[in-house]
Amino acid sequence: MSSTRTSTDPRLPDPTAQAWQAFQGGRRRGRTADLLALEDFEAAAKRVLPRPIFGYVAGAAEDNQARDDNRRAFEELALVPRVLCNVAQRQQGVTLFGTAYRSPFGIAPMGIAALSAYRGDLVLARAAARAGIPAVLSGSSLTRLESVMEAAPGTWFQAYLPGTPERIDALLQRVAAAGVQTLVVTVDIPVAGNRENNLRSGFSTPLRPSLRLAWDGATRPRWLFGTLLRTLLRHGMPHFENSFAERGAPILSSRVQRDFAARDHFDWSHLEGIRRQWRGVLVVKGILSPLDAARARQLGADGIVVSNHGGRQLDGAVAPLRVLPAIAEEAGDMTVLLDSGVRRGTDVLKALALGARAVFVGRPFNFAAAVDGEAGVDHAIDLLRAEVDRNLAMLGVNGCAALGPQHLFDRRAGWALGAATGGQRPGG
Ligand code: GLV
């Protein structure tokens, strides 16, 4: 795409003003008024969601080592501010694949979000569009892709590869016909992750009707009436709508089998085939090795998401932040994005300083939708945006592109060689 489109709506309040309002505090009303940071949404959502649904969203794989290390990787980096930089004109917008966004973060794809909140996929996509940030619709979603694209036309779509070339072709045709411009292909799921926590919390896909499940639902009446029954009454039984060109399995079924396409036979040749067929932007999600980043670049990917799937696939997989610098070096012209563990504005800026152009955040936005629908997601976006704005100012930079390793100090290793001055002469 040659020209830069913008998703900025001039009628929206200036984000700096929003940041100031958030800083002043106390003006918000509603269910999320006392939620002050993204992490706050988890406890609030736990009170709203039935145990299996909350467990599915919050949980990761096996011993949660990958999920926990995602946070530790951010904590191990300290920030090094510059002072007296006149940051009055700072702005946090970034351009991704020719589209200007108002913040350097977006909403990650999350399966079955329509079980966390009524019309959850639409809630996330609309809130993101209004805020001028990207949102990615999951291939494991319960709302037809076409409806989401109609409600929020700039939404990105994330696909898991269906098992055969014919089914891949058919899905790509459907995705293109729906008006998707940015396709994200997730490649870290040759087999399903070991989600023991799902078994422990009673979650399965499809959900198996049982007394236990009925009890879990009955103890969360707001969710039961506001999300589940409202969905069933207005839209019927939710199905996996976007795994293939055609409709998939229902979410609640005594026939416990889901269309899990066999994916362990996929290799780079399949991605090459997709690159030949897909004329829009192609992003490969789930890269952790610089060797794979180089491979993605060679086959013509436009971008990659450095990601360990929020710790939900290979437990013990390295935290994306730790491999980001090495991957950014291999990326060439590709746009490098990152997800997994981003919870604060400072995390966003740390990832940007190490070479990401933007980051994606998952669970907190899902919880925000569960707690207060679109208003909840608006609030979560405002909080993170205000943090980014405030932190840019205190770091002494006017925009995301000015961030670099000179702003980071590794608590264990100190400065990387040459990073302390970011290539500038001290005193300059
Ligand atoms: C789906 O991608 C999941 O992580 O549950």
From TrEMBL:
Active-site annotation: H309
Protein keywords: Flavoprotein, FMN, Oxidoreductase
Binding site for glyoxylate: Y56, Y160, R195, H309, R312
EC number from the UniProt entry: 1.1.2.3
Cofactor requirement: FMN
Binding site for FMN: 109-111, 138, 158, 186, 285, 307, 339-343, 362-363
Similarity comment: family membership: Belongs to the FMN-dependent alpha-hydroxy acid dehydrogenase family.
Record protein name field: L-lactate dehydrogenase
Naturally occurring in which organism (per UniProt): Piscinibacter sakaiensis (Ideonella sakaiensis)
Record lineage: Bacteria, Pseudomonadati, Pseudomonadota, Betaproteobacteria, Burkholderiales
